[in-house]
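User: Write out your own:

AI:
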Amino acid sequence: MTLSGASLLDQLSAVEESGFDAIQKARNPDMLEVARVHYLGRNGQLADAMALIADVPSNARREVGQRANAVKKGLTAALEQQAKSFTGNASEGVTVRDSTLPARTRWVGGVHPVTRVIDEICDIFADLGFSRVQGPEIESLWYNFSALNIPLDHPAADTMDTFYLDDEFVLRTHTSPMQARVMENHQPPVRVMVPGLAYRRDSFDPSHAPAFEQIEGLAVDEGVDFIEFRSAIRHFVHQFFGKSTESRFRPSFYPFTEPSAEVDVSCTVCGGSGCSTCKRTGWVTIMGSGMVDPAVFEAVGYDPERYTGYAFGMGPARIAMVRHGIPDMRLLYEGDMAFLEQFS
């Protein structure tokens, strides 16, 4: 006997509707088992309906078969869901519907103190017109060294300090390569902040890590001078550490800046009187900085006679240590929840 596809589809819909109704009305596991056998058992209503698919015209069997599988899947899911309502904590004799059960304790995540510092630093410089950009962690020798006026025979390029991937590429040792990348693709004015991971062959000790966060800052335009540079850094220091925090610039040397300076702030732990955090000096170094060397401008195609700028780099992990009085950098990287949750 030939059965129309529409007729069997109607029969399947009826099985689905009555099956869902019976499952929902089950008040205990025994009633639920009766409903399962009646609708999904070997001789149940769904099995009877599926046995009739062979009598449906061949051009309608695919549709009917898909519908039958959907009904089976839906009723099975409903059975499992209803069964869960009867399956509580067997040892305590309760069900998941018991409103007296205590709620599960959930650990609430928080922003890592280093991430918080990075975001705050970038927000402060955003008020001065700096945009936030990112760059690749695998860099060519050109961007990591040569474009920044660092010769390849410089100690910083030695295999004792740098992770070489091959003869042409390294894990970047600083976020400074983005200076060259940004300037190659944008004409002045340029003002960017570049947070990201950097890698060096440093031992993992209280003040060093082989992989660490760094933030690079770069500002280039016509007429940018050292006075503007100092004003920008002092604005950052007062916004981040507080208006009572003093800053100073000490002469230094970096291949990609001239003149160069290290920036110190008065120790926020001891107020400048001297402690272990500031090594009894009353000052803590927070960044290296300086005016961009003309050689860097020439490497990226900028006219050094027309444009000037300043650049700086700082370690947000060290700054987080200063802010929170953390004595050991390793605490920031070990993932100890008991330690980290105090900063949430």
The first helix runs from residue 5 to 25. The first strand starts at residue 131 and ends at 132.
